[in-house]
Amino acid sequence: MDFGNSRMYRIQLGPATKFVTPTVSELGIHVLLAESARKGWRFRIEAPDRERLGEFWDYCREEGIQFELEKIYSTRTQPADTQVTFKSGLTERQREVARVATDMGYYEADGASSEEVAAELGISPSTLSTHLRRINAQLYNDIFGDTSA
What we know:
Strand content: 5-15%
CATH architecture of the largest domain: Orthogonal Bundle
Oligomer: single chain
CATH class of the largest domain: Mainly Alpha
Strand order of the largest sheet: 1-2
């Protein structure tokens, strides 16, 4: 059914359909996005750690559920006693943009694209680019100071 801005679909599940929802919940995994893709479904999930992701992977294999991992993003959190404190002149919004870009793997070779990061932040790719240029400029200035003198 088409309602202009949105559509409603009816999905018929076959007898071979397996639900992973209980296992996902037990492992503390959160489904952030579910969408139809090619000949199956694509999910963006958030797992508490790699061990839980591995347990989900094992469950899928045991149940004969095809599972293809496309990308893995890291929050790169460190134990509290090893975190480095760095004071910067970034605004709260700039810290948010930098954090999201880093968490999504934007700075990694196989990480998220600027379009994906911008979509996550609800901004255009050009606005993201402006934010990142300003963030970089501020961080370079914070680290190296004013080098024009």
